[in-house]
Amino acid sequence: MKTNPGRFFEDYRLGEIIAHAVPRTVKMGERTLYHALYPARHALHSSDEFAKTCGLPFSPLDDLIAFHVVFGKTVPDISLNAVANLGYAEGRWLGQVWPGDTLRSESTVIGLKENSSGTSGVVYVRTRGLNQHDEVVLDYVRWVMVRKRGHGPAPEAVVPALASVVAPDALPIPRGLDFTRYDFALAGEPHRWGDYAVGEKIDHVDGVTLEEAEHMLATRLWQNTAKVHFDATQRADGRRLIYGGHIISLARALSFNGLANAQLMVALNGGAHANPAFAGDTVRAWSEVLDRAETPAPGVGALRLRLVATKGAPFALRGEDGKYLPDVLLDLDYWALVPL
Amino acid sequence: MKTNPGRFFEDYRLGEIIAHAVPRTVKMGERTLYHALYPARHALHSSDEFAKTCGLPFSPLDDLIAFHVVFGKTVPDISLNAVANLGYAEGRWLGQVWPGDTLRSESTVIGLKENSSGTSGVVYVRTRGLNQHDEVVLDYVRWVMVRKRGHGPAPEAVVPALASVVAPDALPIPRGLDFTRYDFALAGEPHRWGDYAVGEKIDHVDGVTLEEAEHMLATRLWQNTAKVHFDATQRADGRRLIYGGHIISLARALSFNGLANAQLMVALNGGAHANPAFAGDTVRAWSEVLDRAETPAPGVGALRLRLVATKGAPFALRGEDGKYLPDVLLDLDYWALVPL
Amino acid sequence: MKTNPGRFFEDYRLGEIIAHAVPRTVKMGERTLYHALYPARHALHSSDEFAKTCGLPFSPLDDLIAFHVVFGKTVPDISLNAVANLGYAEGRWLGQVWPGDTLRSESTVIGLKENSSGTSGVVYVRTRGLNQHDEVVLDYVRWVMVRKRGHGPAPEAVVPALASVVAPDALPIPRGLDFTRYDFALAGEPHRWGDYAVGEKIDHVDGVTLEEAEHMLATRLWQNTAKVHFDATQRADGRRLIYGGHIISLARALSFNGLANAQLMVALNGGAHANPAFAGDTVRAWSEVLDRAETPAPGVGALRLRLVATKGAPFALRGEDGKYLPDVLLDLDYWALVPL
């Protein structure tokens, strides 16, 4: 067999380090296409001049470009035979990605737990994205449910202890970041860190209808190879399952309207792809302020935000049974940096 | 309210200057995507080498990229609650946009006139696009019909006096432009300025069928946020209204076939989005030579051109009632620079 | 007539050299979009760092980008009135294309043969793609069936003698290429040149469903102007015919899964677009190893590969009548460079 059949649950060993293939040099073309695929308008990632007034040498690539590139590399080794992408934790954007950087990914298996059915199991990995200087630019934990190849005995169950939220003092701050000369008019909204209250909910108002061509362009750009995103013959109904990261980027971009000053994502506390998304769906987003924190950087505060993507009405999340409502696509929990 | 509800007619004041948000650094990726979205083939915007033989340091970004970026920034402040985009006048591309430039927009309210219905009014703005050196790269007047929020009294009507055409001696010429070494074979057609007669009409022959994914990619790339272009739930028929600028770029690109040497757009005399365009429409274009002028630049003449985009037969424009025929999408009046 | 009606069979003269219009500067944006349009993952074209370990200064543009750009320029002169694209031969990628290079194309008419029907004829051209230094980067022969304008007498039939395969000692090797430090883990597969046997067949497993927006974006990016790819009114069934090169790139990208180390295409021995492809088709690919050869470059071997794109099952190619099966879209014969 010359082709990659993907790994099954039995193929993972606790502590194993997997070096993922196909490093990727990202340049300005990635940003251009990102801004064509999503209604991304955060000024720090749109304008070199704006980034300079924030203490950066020029505009870094959007945080989620780094996420998608790093994530995409893991797919052939982690999620080709995955039944479900179950969760994220302890994600931190530890460095900016600049045009011309070359990214690669490696994952460490930190947990394994067979399901009671005996036909699948949960694999926990800590994935690191590194640049050409071997600097870690992104670090996060993900767990997926993976099919078993056979019916062999279960390994000893190891479930890692994961923080439910990245602590404020562990938030990474881009080197040089300084919001004391921040231009709110150019950024698009006047709301400062202090204008957001814990518990506040924001309806981001706008909606975007999904197209097959768009999500496939995006998913290929990140070199994500999962068949279900590209091959209409994989499902009986002929629909392609949209890469969950496409919805993350769409929701984050939509959140500009009300959170235009939440310029940088610096930590990913958790996230659930609540329901699958398909072409034709019209996606809207709303946010909830979960927490606030100060940072040591001048003029820079942090907001912990819930970001929900939905096909339905804002602010509805779970039913009486505690389960996500059928219209909810994404429930993401992250920290963003915001001017004071 | 953290989100932007858009301005209503009452929110504009004569003389007010609006600094539009989200500056944008444009690079070569924008050109690449532009050439994927439209069948653009004008050699000056395709080849650095060709641009050098025309006296430029290298190939500038397509004129309409500048237009779309500058226009897109005005949408949240000018046309979010617009009922119709009524017209353009006095447009001039005053400077070239080079890869790496950062553009921002500002608009001055130069006219206000409430409609007799009392439910809307016409807002006239002069919009300027500026680069990071505060040089104006584009200047144009646009007027839109905007809904009123309430039923308050009408402001005094002020309608600006606008030139029906940019005078030939006011046409901006890119610094260094010289067509005396122009290579007609590489450009694709032998027709010189002198080969075009006033009154001549050209059928550009080719047609392009519109796709939802394409117009949305384009419209997002220009950071244009008007809901109707992205959200299929905004109309009862589930169709998305295509950004009028998408049709301008498509028609201009199609006009290569017959006007391959009309290399640069330098002035926009006027324009009407005669009817809306939707995915599935097949768009064709035809042009009419309206005027000719000499310029002080070596080897460089100017043609005033009517550019019409249509779903129907060429050269048909208005019905017996004087109104645009239902198939006509665009009627644009511009000046282009052409080798003598 | 200002527009280009295309050439008819009578318009070609043996020995005539046609300088094709619209030179094109290609940069990193072209690579980005290429990787969004096709699931391209070969590491040499994905990572500057990987390319450096292979002896190159950085990552060149994908071989098929050069092919498409050079080919696209020939369309207005060669295939606008073509009935069919009949074959390729003697193709060689003689130089790498680097970001910032400007490409142009010229073709020499090397054969002419009227068909017995008297309504069309076969035109053979040798096309060369040149960069801004007048270096040939690509050279190939193509023959197409072109309609006759009238019923005039047939020219003397001249059919060029074409090699059925590029000889191993004529394979071009990129300057500096050295696979002795090749990183198989980063490249994605462990299979070396010696692991492939003549006659071996590889099912590349993955499938991609075609979308109208995607093939039009691609075809426009290469400035290919053939109406049938863009205009849904050209066919009674309203479908757009997909540019054959789109299928070549798609199949080549899919072949990563099993041929991840076939990093560079260096020669095109032949190829047939067996059946047309349309939006909605799900395309899969399989390869057959036709031959193996050594090269003088350190650590570098060559594989001659048949690459087949199909809507059907792998390894089925022709029916009992010797004709391509209806599901087969492409049968390509090329040489690739592979680490020893």
UniProtKB/TrEMBL annotation, chains A, B, C:
Top-level taxonomic group: Bacteria
Gene3D superfamilies the UniProt entry points to: Hotdog Thioesterase
A single GO molecular function term of this UniProt record: lyase activity
Name of the featured protein: MaoC family dehydratase
Naturally occurring in which organism (per UniProt): Fertoeibacter niger
